[in-house]
Amino acid sequence: MQKKLAICPGSFDPITNGHLDIIRRGATIFDEVIIAIFNNQSKTPLFSVEERIHLIEQATKDIENVRVDVSEGLLVDYAKEQNAHAVLRGLRAVSDFEYEMQITSMNKKLEPDIETFFMMTNNQYSFLSSSIVKEVARYNGNITNLVPKVVEEALLAKFN
Ligand code: ADP
After folding, report:
1. N or C: where does the chain have the smaller number of CB atoms within 10 Å of the terminal CB?
2. Longest dimension (CA), the chain
3. 128 lines ligand 1 (CB under 6 A)
4. What angle do CA 117, 115, 32 make, to 5 degrees?
């Protein structure tokens, strides 16, 4: 039988425990999860793509069926190229919903065979985003428990 692959797309600038929670849970449902870094042109990233790959690899090294990749094009094209029919996204608050619905509807129009699956965030991470973590880290706030240790160290190094 064909492997059930899911693409988990995002900026991951940097990866947080909220992302990891979705990835870990997704990896119990799908045969393999590909964490795909999409270089969003409208955002100026703090971490380079190489740095983000490294951080994700470190943070997920204990999860066997997860790998990291990078793409610059359309998510649906990437998914097809990988032979994946599923996209995995996390939902935090109602505020995520409109944006996700717009993207999912467009992807469905572009590629009807690809299904998007949403996982509700773990309550403890519902307020957590890469942006807020960067903001807190910039002013020396405590981010332990919000990001993996390697990410905490990388953020400290960036802002010192
Ligand atoms: P994007 O720029 O595409 O939103 P992100 O890296 O911010 O990329 O997020 C990637 C995915 O992870 C999105 O589906 C987002 O909703 C989800 N996500 C981010 N933070 C959390 C969190 N704290 N809990 C659950 N899902 C999250």
Report:
1. N
2. 51
3. yes
4. 70
Dist CA 10 CA 116 (whole Å):
14
Answer whether residue 1 shows pLDDT above 80: no
For residue 132, give its domain range.
Answer: 5-159
Going from the Cα of 2 to the center of ligand 1, the distance in angstroms, rounded, reads 28
Tell me the CATH number at 107. 3.40.50.620
Mean pLDDT, all residues of the chain: 95
| Amino acid in the structure at residue 90 | G
> Region 46-75: what's the mean pLDDT?
97
In angstroms, what is the span from residue 91 Cα to ligand 1's centroid? 7
Number of domains in the chain: 1
Q: How far apart are CA 40 and CA 28, in angstroms?
A: 28
Dump strand ranges (E) for the chain: 5-10, 32-38, 66-71, 86-91, 115-120
The verdict on the CB of residue 58 being under 6 Å from ligand 1 is no
In the sheet that holds 5-10, the strands lie side by side as: 66-71, 32-38, 5-10, 86-91, 115-120
- pTM assigned to the model: 0.94
